[in-house]
């Protein structure tokens, strides 16, 4: 099996080619973001990133954020969310819980207070259903801060929410009026 270091290296590579730059290895994604597993393994090896199907399966099954998913017969793979390439995730709009959370770095608060939460170069804004996950996400970018999103009110006001395969809530944007700022 792969070492933890190698597992992380391949996982980051998979994020690159399945979420952002499939052209990096000439990988074809279908309209829903799925790639053929055999093609991914072959093209990755041609690019110097070598892994077997069993190693890929291990990475998918053990990724703590469930970033990747197989179809039922494991012939196709895709990133669960976080794409910057245009895909149709196939997710159906759902009613969210009353409150969702967004973790960010405190250095981003001024911009968020001025502009709300925007998807930037991704297809969606990512939200979590629990504060602990939001803190973890925010910690990756600096001193973390967790914003409450009045998701159910947004939904009632016509905004769409989607729940990804790995339980990340997705929406197009969050205007400032739906954000509850933490006491700092």
Automatic annotation (TrEMBL):
Entry-linked Gene3D superfamilies: 3.20.170.30, RNA 2'-phosphotransferase, Tpt1/KptA family, N-terminal domain
Enzyme class (EC, first level): transferase
Keywords recorded for this protein, A-Z: NAD, Transferase
Enzyme Commission identifier(s): 2.7.1.-
Residues in coiled coil: none
Molecular function in Gene Ontology: NAD+ poly-ADP-ribosyltransferase activity; tRNA 2'-phosphotransferase activity
Biological process terms in GO annotation: tRNA splicing, via endonucleolytic cleavage and ligation
Function according to Swiss-Prot or TrEMBL: Removes the 2'-phosphate from RNA via an intermediate in which the phosphate is ADP-ribosylated by NAD followed by a presumed transesterification to release the RNA and generate ADP-ribose 1''-2''-cyclic phosphate (APPR>P). May function as an ADP-ribosylase.
Family (UniProt): Belongs to the KptA/TPT1 family.
Protein name per the record: Probable RNA 2'-phosphotransferase
Gene coding for it: kptA
């Amino acid at each position: 099996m792969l070492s933890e270091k190698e597992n992380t290296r391949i996982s980051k590579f998979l994020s690159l080619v399945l979420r952002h730059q499939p052209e990096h290895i000439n990988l074809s994604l279908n309209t829903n973001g799925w790639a053929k597993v055999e093609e991914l393994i072959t093209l990755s090896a041609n690019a110097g990133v070598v892994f077997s199907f069993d190693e890929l399966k291990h990475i998918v099954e053990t990724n703590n954020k469930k970033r990747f998913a197989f179809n039922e017969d494991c012939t196709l793979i895709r990133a669960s969310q976080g794409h910057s390439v245009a895909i149709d995730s196939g997710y159906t709009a759902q009613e969210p819980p009353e409150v969702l959370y967004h973790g960010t770095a405190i250095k981003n608060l001024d911009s968020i207070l001025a502009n709300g939460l925007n998807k930037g170069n991704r297809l969606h804004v990512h939200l979590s259903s629990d504060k602990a996950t939001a803190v973890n996400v925010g910690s990756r970018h600096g001193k973390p801060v967790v914003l409450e999103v009045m998701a159910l009110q947004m939904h009632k006001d016509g905004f769409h929410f989607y729940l990804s395969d790995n339980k990340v809530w997705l929406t197009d944007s969050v205007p400032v009026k739906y954000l509850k700022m933490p006491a700092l």
